[in-house]
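thread: overnight batch results

M.L. [08:02]
morning all. the overnight job finished for the chain we discussed friday. pasting input first so we're all looking at the same thing
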Amino acid sequence: MNSMKMKDMINEYVRAYNSFDIEGMIALLHEEIEFRNISSGSIDVETKGIEEFREIAEESKSLFSYRCQTIVGYSFEDDKTQIEIDYEGTLAKDLPNGMKAGEKIHLKGKSVFAFRDDKVAVIEDYS
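M.L. [08:03]
and the structure it wrote out:
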């Protein structure tokens, strides 16, 4: 897959993510999608397959009243693309870690996307 097509798919995925459009996100994914969220070097969420991804996406959707990933850079290597992101969100409910509904989150991170069969096959989020 060429870098322009990868970039277009990632932009569409981020647009769907920002607008809480789970079906729009799922439409771009390979049926065997692997998703990992890595925070401070440890995997804290990992899914395999569309249904596990859907479950975690629905759960995540309920945590935020607002969320926005802004892509600030891209790098391409073979069938992978890394994006640098600025993330902000507003919590919709209290979290076990003590954060409260209405609190704002601001993070910088990166996501790595890998592709197979013209679909997103792997997403790794790093923060």
